[in-house]
Target: Acyltransferase
Amino acid sequence: MRKHYIDNLRTSIVLLVIIYHVCYIFNGVGVLGGIPNSLSLPICDGFASLVYPWFMVLLFIIAGMSSAYSLEKRSTKEFIASRTQKLLVPSTLGLFVFHFITGLVNTRLGGAELSNVPLLVRYFIYVLSGTGVLWFAQLLWFFSLILCLLRNIKLFEKYRLKEKKSIYLPVIIIYLSSLVLNAPIITVYRVGIYLASYLIGYYVFSDENVVERVEKTVYISLAIALASGVIYISSFYGSDYTAPSCLQNVITNIYAYFTSIFLIGIFKRFFDKTNSVLSYLSASSFGFYVLHYTPILLIGVLVSNSGLNVYLRYLLTLLLGSISTLLLYEVIKRIPFYRYLVLGIRNKR
Model:
């Protein structure tokens, strides 16, 4: 049976990511990768810092849950083939046919002088610089392979089938994993905490009994999330929320974990349903995720060089970026072979 609350939660996070990236490209708190010298709004910087600790943690937890449900219907070979098509192809081959555009803009914004570099070499630089949001798909594919190896260890699978699991103990794992396997400079590659989140989703939250307990204790999770969130904001508001001093703080990780399980519980309780709009958004959410950053960045650059009011800059970037993402998705998914490279959608036989 389809778990609509997971679909709706995943869709909500993707839409949140789109809003976050509008705040991110104009950020005024020193997060690397934004548009240089752009005007920013403190309230938007505050929003970005508020969601950053938990929204990708939650997305990986959901991915782990979804992997468990997928493996109930697929063999390991079929699962890896499916993950390769959907995740690896768009995050590698898609760089060469679409996301190099992001790389071109990024290198220009970064002040790189490439006019004397041969065109072919420049193209490969743009490709390598265009990864952007595709890091999520790259890590998720890698984690899927690790999961397939771990499933052969009986001790782990025995734990997954265990009737009673703690819904609070994983917060310790989340915190400890935040301290390890963090890539230098490219801070989005937080391999430790994201791998832990993915495996927690698979081994813990794919169990319906666990989700039912999360649903029943949702207001306890909310209280802990709010309390830790207040401490987190009071400690790090106005600073670089991607810095290790923030992301490896124990309060930050308590806030990230309990916000995540609160949202799982609240969506299970109130949003385990669907309709034609929600069904479309669920089916399209990965495509929106893959495509959204390029139009947002391009529109952000255009409005940052205008004389528009700062509020209008944010609003237009979000509105036009979202519309452009939708149109791009609808066009690209109809182009044979190209849709496979960019979105991982095979041609219909």
